[in-house]
Design goal:
494 residues, mainly alpha, Serine Threonine Protein Phosphatase 5, Tetratricopeptide repeat, 26 helices, globular
């Protein structure tokens, strides 16, 4: 990140000397958009570069077009076309190969992302991002050992690099190898103490490991830094941490502060993402009318931020809110809108949100077999736990969200064995449950109920106690907490 800031200063000097330096504007846009997560500023410079692109060589024109069109899903196809034209002329262009891979990653076409990256590495390319982007793609396919192999190759044959150590930490995090993840994160910090994203990495590791005090400290470090966009990341992470503790009010307060800041600095994508998190809290606490209001705010910000994925998530929550209000016709209409919106974009795997919503509708109707079928379809389109940088800021891994209703459907069908299997999958998640910590914790409660119904007293007590320990600081009056305490007393008195 500090390199992005340094490069921007150099580009600013370049355009001061030559105000029509198109490639410098494009590079500055890339530094803002991809390096700093300042999407609005990045798009501003991208647009300036596009206006001047008739003054540059074919190579630079294709680079500029590819970068610019990669900033919106509506133009991903144009971005792919531009980078392919670039690579036809210059097949060894590192930037072209990497950015082509990034765009394919954004639409979850992981095999297509891997191909240009492998070509870079086979040429003994020393460009760091070739290795990082390839490790991300391998993680998304669940090939964690391959991801580790690529990163270790760089460390052993190119240089001892903080970013690479950080990616190794993320790989171990996805595998639930938390101690190894912390070792790599500390190596990254020892090499480069100025990269603030390492606070996020360590925070997430501690979060998944269950050391929530240390996780909170690392996330709070983000709030002490100069960059306001890092504060947004800190607010979102703290909101997730408090949600996993059942502290809904404190979680909402973090998100409120994040939304205010996002509006202040005019970051519509961040605003929409935080609004969606806020909407989720309303949905989970039964405030469905309020959730619809927050959905509208998230929807508008997503449109203004030109982010199709956030629009999809907004419509998805809208359908769930109507469903919980027993407005079945409105929920069906939202599902139809959702399907049409997804089909308008390039990421066809996003149809999982449509399948998930249809499953929720069938679950509400108690058509359990149909619900199970839809839920399975949605889950089949999930990538593996990945931790995709920097996209994870806006598209948090949603495994827990998709897996929980399948487990509940089996439970309501009376198929306790399958319900147990699905809830246990949720409790074994790492990255896939960070932003849905309430689902993760409630899975222990549900497993307690399943084991109690099976007559497995010891296992039931174990899981109720685990649940109550995780939510020992939860807001008062949560129904699951009161029920678990009652059940635990009854089981122990037998």
């Amino acid at each position: 990140m500090e390199k992005a800031g340094q490069s921007i200063q150099l580009y600013e000097k370049a355009v001061a000397v030559d105000p029509e330096f198109a490639l410098a504007y494009a590079d500055m846009g890339t530094a803002y958009f991809w390096g700093l997560g300042n999407w609005s500023k990045g798009k501003e410079y991208y647009q300036k570069a596009l206006e001047l692109s008739d003054r540059v060589s074919d190579r630079e024109r294709y680079q500029i077009q590819g970068w610019i069109y990669s900033s919106s899903e509506k133009t991903y196809d144009k971005s792919i076309e531009a980078f392919n034209k670039l690579l036809e002329l210059y097949p060894n262009d590192n930037d072209g190969n990497n950015m082509l891979a990034v765009v394919y990653s954004l639409i979850e076409e992981w095999d297509k992302a891997i191909e240009p990256l492998i070509s870079c590495i086979q040429r003994k390319d020393e460009f760091m991002w070739s290795y990082i982007n390839l490790s991300v793609a391998y993680r998304a396919k669940g090939l964690y050992d391959k991801a580790k192999e690529v990163l270790e190759y760089y460390l052993n044959n190119v240089s001892d690099n903080a970013w690479i150590h950080n990616q190794l930490a993320l790989t171990y995090l996805c595998q639930e190898k938390y101690d190894l993840a912390l070792v790599e994160a500390d190596k990254a910090i020892s090499i480069n103490q100025n990269n603030n994203f390492y606070f996020l990495t360590k925070g997430d590791i501690y979060h998944c490991k269950g050391d929530l005090i240390k996780a909170e400290k690392e996330y709070q470090n983000l709030l002490e830094l100069e960059g306001k966009r890092l504060h947004l990341l800190g607010r979102q992470s703290l909101g997730a941490l408090y949600l996993s503790q059942g502290r809904f009010e404190k979680s909402e307060e973090q998100l409120k502060q994040g939304i205010i800041l996002a509006k202040e600095i005019d970051e519509k994508r961040w605003e929409s993402s935080l609004q969606l998190d806020y909407t989720y809290r309303y949905l989970k606490s039964g405030r469905f009318k309020e959730a619809l209001k927050e959905f509208q705010n998230a929807w508008q910000a997503a449109i203004q931020g030109e982010n199709l994925f956030l629009q999809i998530c907004s419509l998805h929550y809208k359908g769930i809110a109507y469903l919980e209000m027993k407005s079945m016709d409105e929920a069906q209409r939202a599902a139809a809108e959702l399907k049409e919106l997804i089909e308008s974009g390039m990421n066809k795997k996003a149809i999982r949100y449509y399948h998930h919503l249809l499953g929720m509708i069938e679950l509400k109707r108690e058509n359990f077999s149909k619900a199970v079928d839809f839920f399975k379809r949605g889950i089949s389109l999930l990538q593996f736990q990945c931790y995709n940088f920097p996209q994870q800021w806006l598209t948090p891994d949603s495994h827990a969200l998709f897996m929980e209703p399948l487990a509940l459907a089996y439970y309501k069908m009376g198929d306790l064995d399958k319900a147990q299997e699905e809830y246990e999958k949720i409790t074994s998640l790492s990255r896939g449950r960070i932003y849905y910590g309430d689902i993760y914790v409630k899975s222990f409660y549900m497993l307690g109920k399943i084991f109690e119904q099976k007559g497995w007293k010891g296992k039931a007590i174990e899981h109720y106690e685990k649940f109550l320990d995780l939510w020992k600081d939860a807001d008062p009056g949560l129904a699951e907490v009161e029920d678990a305490r009652t059940r635990l007393v009854r089981l122990k008195s037998r």
